[in-house]
Amino acid sequence: MILEEQIGGDISDIVMIDGSKGYAIINDASFNTSIVSFDLDTQTKLDTILTSEGFFFADLAITSKKEVYVSWRQSENPGIRIIDGLTDQKITE
Known about the structure:
Largest sheet: 4 strands, antiparallel
Strand content: over 45%
Number of strands: 7
Structural class: mainly beta
Number of domains: 1
Mean pLDDT: 91
CATH topology: Thrombin, subunit H
Strand order of the largest sheet: 1-2-3-4
Helix content: under 10%
Distance between the termini: 30 Å
Low-confidence stretches: none
């Protein structure tokens, strides 16, 4: 288990790559959202992958290729952003 204090904010969605590595949508006190990777074994946040100024990240999904799909609700450039779940690298911008 990982606590919201350990990951940096209120957790609104989680997907797991394997038994220990996962991704979460985090909401801060100003209702900005970010996507972070974390490790359940060490109970630590690994990296902040994406950030937004507003409540733009709404949902996460994982594919069989370990790609993380992030729904992006920004009105100027909405769509799906893809992250490589093994490397934390953004596949799309």
